[in-house]
Amino acid sequence: MPSRTLRTNARSALRADSLIRTALLAQLATGGGEVWLVSAWISDVDLVDNGDGSFDYLLGEDPPERCRLSDVLLLLARAGTRVRVVTRPDAANEAFVQRLLARVDAACDLRVVEDRDVHEKCLVGPEWIFQGSMNFTRNGLARNKEQITYSVDQRSAAQALVEFQHEWGQV
Q1: Per DSSP, which regions of 9-160 are E strands?
Q2: Do 47 and 64 meet the contact criterion of CB atoms below 8 Å apart?
Q3: Which residues pair with 114 in a beta bridge?
Q4: SS3 of 108, please?
């Protein structure tokens, strides 16, 4: 069960966004399953730089030059992955939530749950999990002193998925 813990800050070259990008693009390539993003604060961070076309084969018929977090979550949902986002009903999250929900259609299995008490920070897929102190914001990914652990562990991921489904329902 490989895992890695990163401690990031503005002066460090260590950033979690490359690991997150890799996990989500791998999930996009395989399709199916379930992905939950749970974070008190979320912003629509740039996640994939496709300026050189490296990810054209994953990003669809008219691939963008860059993908934000909401773009990748929508691509996952359209590829057959159940996507659930849990965040606080806060003005800081509103732009992300509105951008995401405005583009949901019948081909997407994507839901957003707002919970004023959520403080947990986690991104989980069928066989992997990110957990730690990092919110999914620009500051969380690039500036703040954060700790995040990434594990390739089907058992831990499954446990988190069951707990999230129990806490926030089978929405």
Answers
A1: 34-38, 46-49, 66-68, 82-87, 110-114, 122-124, 128-132, 146-152
A2: no
A3: 87
A4: coil
Amino acid occupying residue 83: V
Give strand pairing partners of 136.
42
For tokens 């390739």, name the residue: 152
Mean pLDDT value of segment 42-69: 83
Residue 149 banded pLDDT, cuts 50, 70, 90: confident
Helix segments in 38-128, DSSP class H: 56-59, 69-78, 91-102
Q: Is the pLDDT of residue 19 over 90?
A: no
Q: Which helix (H) or strand (E) holds 52?
A: none
Burial readout 26-45 (b: 16 or more C-beta within 10 A, e: otherwise) = ebbeeeebbbbbbbbbbbbb
Rounded Cα distance between 135 and 40, Å, is 7
Helical spans, DSSP H, in 31-125: 56-59, 69-78, 91-102
Q: Is the pLDDT confidence value at 115 over 90?
A: yes
Phi/psi region, residue 53 (left: phi>0; alpha: psi -120 to 50; beta: rest), is: left
pTM score, whole prediction: 0.90
Sequence-separated (6 or more) residues with CB below 8 Å from residue 137: 41, 42, 43, 45, 92
- Tell me the C-alpha distance between 91 and 146, whole Å: 23
